[in-house]
Amino acid sequence: MPVISRVFEEEIDGDAPGYWLCKKCIAALGAVHFALQGARASDAADFLRQVATGDYPNQLKWEAAVELGIEDDLGFDEDEMTA
Length: 83
Known about the structure:
Distance between the termini: 29 Å
Oligomer: single chain
Strand content: under 5%
Shape: globular
Structural class: mainly alpha
Low-confidence stretches: none
Number of helices: 5
Mean pLDDT: 93
Helix content: over 70%
Largest sheet: none
Number of domains: 1
């Protein structure tokens, strides 16, 4: 899990962020969250929540929120977030 979040952070902070790779990281963290129990699942969920509510591009925020199933709770509109 730490490796995936580190890849995400390094990619998003780069000069030309690869959103495709960030989306893959988000999907992998979503799989960890739902497949595992305990601390690793919680760490994955915490990271995804941080992306969904943090200062990231809307498309990545949307993807993270969908992985957690909280997009409606956050008031996200799919058309607006993915445009």
